[in-house]
Amino acid sequence: MDASLTLIVIMAVLFACGVYAMMERSLTRVLIGFLLLGNATNLLLLIVMGMPGKAPFYDEEGAVSDPLPQALTLTAIVITFAVSAFLLALIYRSWQLGQADTVEDDEEDIALRERTDAEDELFDDESTSDEEDAPTDFVGVVTSPITVLHMRDHPAIHDDAPVDVADGYSASDDDGEDRT
């Protein structure tokens, strides 16, 4: 596959500019960054597609083009359009409510920013040694969060379906009825 170096550089620049624009607090810049990322994704799929060939029809001979990148490009276009419309609605509503499209800090953000490193270390030291010895795998443990019961283990359900005797289960249950 021979990809043009120019297309690869343009794609990388679009990705970099899109990520940089999305890190701003202005919703308009976030929208522009998202549009740049969407176009960079479409360009990436165009690069991945490779050399164009004939349409993949039945009994077509020769080099046929792969239809998957084309389908993914159409899907990426639709997703970009939908999210862009949603972001435009958010920007419009933000402008109606506050005459600005910037995202402001709330009380939790300010409190989190003002927290010192000593408080962070205090939160980290609160873990006990019991938590370190706790098992991470619940398989075979009595205190497992999920218990799997078979229908024959449940006392309220009486099933008349035949049961295989080969799995170690007897053919009669507690009340003496034969279920085979």
TrEMBL record:
Keywords: Cell membrane, Membrane, Transmembrane, Transmembrane helix. It is a multi-pass membrane protein. It is found in: Cell membrane. The keyword tRNA processing does not apply. InterPro entries: CPA3_antiporter_subunitC (IPR050601), NUOK/Mnh_C1-like (IPR039428). GO terms for cellular component: plasma membrane. PANTHER family: ANTIPORTER SUBUNIT MNHC2-RELATED. Belongs to the CPA3 antiporters (TC 2.A.63) subunit C family. This is Na(+) H(+) antiporter subunit C.
